[in-house]
Structure formats: C-alpha cells, structure tokens
Hints:
Elements: H1 9-22, E1 28-32, E2 50-55, H2 62-74, E3 81-85, H3 91-99, E4 102-104
Parallel strand pairs: 2-3
Antiparallel strand pairs: 1-2, 1-4
GO molecular function: transferase activity
Protein name: Nucleotidyltransferase domain-containing protein
Keywords: Transferase
Amino acid sequence: MSQSLALSAQELAQVRAILAAHLPPGVTVSVFGSRAAGAGKPAPKPWSDLDLALEGESPLPLSLMAELAEAFDESPLPWKVDLVDGKAISAGFAAIVKAGCVPLDLTARPEA
C-alpha cells in the first residue's frame, strides 16, 4: 500500500492511468476523505470510495468530468470514485478538502 494513501500499488497505478489518459496538462489531483489515510486516522473500510479533487486554472468542462466518471465506472477498481472540481466547490468545502488531502503525483512510476 502507498504510505499516504489507502490504495494498493495496482489500484494506484490504475487510478493514475485513467487520470493521465483524460486530464489536460496543468490539472492537479489530490486524494481526500477516508482514503487519504494519515497517522492517527482509522483505516478506511475496503468498500470506501475514493474521493479525488481535481484543480485546473479554471473550472473543468463538465464533459471532461463526465468522461472521467465513466472511465472510473468502467474500470476494474473495486470501489466508486467520486470526483470534485476544486474550482467549482464552495470555499468552505474547499477548505475541508485541502485540510485533509494528499497530492497525487500523476507522473510517478509504479514501484518495482
């Protein structure tokens, strides 16, 4: 498992591959919620969803968000993936996301 994320190496590679196939350059991705595990936080349930915050320079097109949602729905990942656009959420929710998020490096290579 990744030391900061409650995901197996294979699951993390699948998530990265889907994001890399759909996201334009310059969009950052962070994991938040129960799978952004940290010291002192309980481990998520095996069926807990994966919460991803996407952030570009401006709000992302709804068509892109729909394409990503469909790609995750059709993937072999064993849980639901929830997507939020960091530029399209309230300031209060953005603060909650940022307080407990773990940045996801889309360029990282799987560990051998």
